[in-house]
Amino acid sequence: MASFTYQALNADGKRVTGVMEGDGERQVRAQLRAQNLKPLAISSGKAPVSVAGFASVFRRQRRLSVAELSLVSRQLASLIQSGLPLDEALQISARQSRGIRVKTLLSQVRSRVLEGHTLAQAMGEHPAAFDRMYCAMVRAGESAGYLGEVMERLAEYTETGQQSRQKLQMALVYPLALLGVSVLVVSLLMTFVVPRLVSMFASSNRDLPGLTQALIVVSDFMASGWALMLLVVMIAAVLGFRWRLRDVEARKRWHQFLLHIPMLSDMLRQMDSARFASTLAILLSSGVPLLESVRIAAQVLDNEVMRTATEQLAMRVQEGGSFSKSMQQADVFPPLLVQMAANGEANGTLAKQLAYAADNQERELQMRLGTAMALLEPLTIVLMGGLVTLIMLAVLLPIFDINTLI
C-alpha cells in the first residue's frame, strides 16, 4: 500500500488537497468518490503537475520546521509509549498533522515501514526532513526497543535547540543591525564623499597623509570592476569549499582543523560529546551491550575526527580494553566526561553517569554560548566604531590643512 497526494473538488466546488493510502490510483479515486469528492489529480509521492503542484514539490524538499519536527516526535512518542504499533502511530500522526507536506511525508514513511523497513531506514530516505543525527537516534531506539523514550528525547532536543537558536538570533540582531549600518556608511563614504575629495586634493602639489592615500586606493578599488570580480571569486570559493567538503577525507581534515581553534574546539567537543553521552546512556540503560551501544552512538557524532576516534574506541573495547581508558586514549572527549565514565564503569552505574555528564556538558555549553554572545555586542561596536573613525579621520586630516593645500 502506497501513499498518494490528491487534488479534488468537494460538494461546494472548492478545491481540496490531501494524502490517501491505497493499492493504486484507481482505488484512491474510488475512495475519493465514496467521500463525495471529484478527483482532479492524483500522484504517488509527488504533487500534481500544476503550478501549485510544483510549489508543493519545492516545499517538500525543504527541511521540516523545528515546530513540525518537534510535534511529530512528541506525537509518535506518545502513541508508541501507549502501546500502538508503529504503522498505526504513523497513520494517526499523519491524520493529526495539518500541513499537506507533513501528511505526505509521514504517509511515505509508513508505506516503507509496512514494506518491512525499519523506521530509521524509512526516515533516512528523507534527509531534508530527518537529518543524520535524528535517524541515528531513532536507529538506537529501535535497536534498544526503547523507541518511545528516544522520540521523546528527540522532541526535547529539538525544542532545546530551537530555544538556543532563538536566543542566538535575538543576541545577534543588534550586532548585525550595527554591522549593516556601518557597511552602508562606509559604502556611501567610499562612493560619494571620497571621490569628490580626491578631485580637490589632486589639484594640490602637497603630499597627502598616508591614511588618506590608503583610503583613496581603497576607494578607487571599490569603484573599479575589480571589487565586483573579487566578490564573485569569494562566492565561488565558498561554493567550491562546500562542494569539496562532500569528500570524507577533505571533511576530516577540515574538522581536524576546527578542533585546533581555541575556544571553538571546546564548544564543538562539548556539542558532540553531549550527544554521544546522551545516546550511549539511553542504549546502556535499555540493556544494549556496551560494544554495540558505542558503535550505534558513534553515528550521532557530526565531527568526522571524533567519529573515527569513537570507532577506534569500539575496536579497543572489542579487544577487551576498558571503556574509560579507551576514551582517554581517543583524546577527543572532554576530561570530565572521561572521568565520569571511569567512575560509572567502576561503580556499575555507567549509564547514569553518562546521562549526568551529558546534562552537565549541555549546561556548560549554554553558559559558553551566553558568554560569547554577551561579548559579541560590545566587540562589534568597538570594531565598527574604529573602522568608521579611521575613515572619517582619513577624510578630515587633509581638510584640517585645507588652507595650506589651496
Can you tell me about this structure?
By secondary structure, this protein is mainly alpha-helical. The chain folds into three domains: 2-60, Ubiquitin-like (UB roll); 66-130, Receptor-associated Protein; 153-406, Type II secretion system (T2SS), domain F (Receptor-associated Protein, Up-down Bundle), CATH 1.20.81. The chain is 75% helix and 6% strand. The protein has 18 helices and three strands. It has helices at residues 25-34, 51-60, 66-81, 86-96, 100-114, 119-124, 132-144, 147-202, 210-223, 225-244, 248-258, 264-285, 290-297, 304-318, 323-330, 335-347, 350-400, 402-405, and strands spanning 2-9, 15-22, 38-44. The chain has a three-stranded antiparallel sheet with strand order 2-1-3. Strand 1 (2-9) and strand 2 (15-22) form a beta hairpin. It starts with a strand and ends with a helix. The model is unreliable at 46-61 (pLDDT under 50).
Radius of gyration: 29 Å
**Per DSSP, what share of the residues sits in E-state strands of 2 or more residues?**
5-15%
CATH class of the largest domain: Mainly Alpha
What structural category arises from helix and sheet content?
Answer: mainly alpha
Number of strands: 3
Number of helices: 18
CATH topology call of the largest domain: Receptor-associated Protein
The name of the CATH superfamily of the largest domain reads Type II secretion system (T2SS), domain F
Q: Give the SSE string.
A: EEHEHHHHHHHHHHHHHHHHH
Fraction of residues in helices?
over 70%
Question: What is the approximate shape?
Answer: flat
How widely separated are the two ends? Answer: 88 Å
- CATH architecture tag of the largest domain: Up-down Bundle
Mean pLDDT: 79
Largest sheet report: 3 strands, antiparallel
Placed side by side, the strands forming the largest sheet appear as 2-1-3
Spans of at least 5 consecutive residues with low confidence: 46-61
Overall number of structural domains: 3
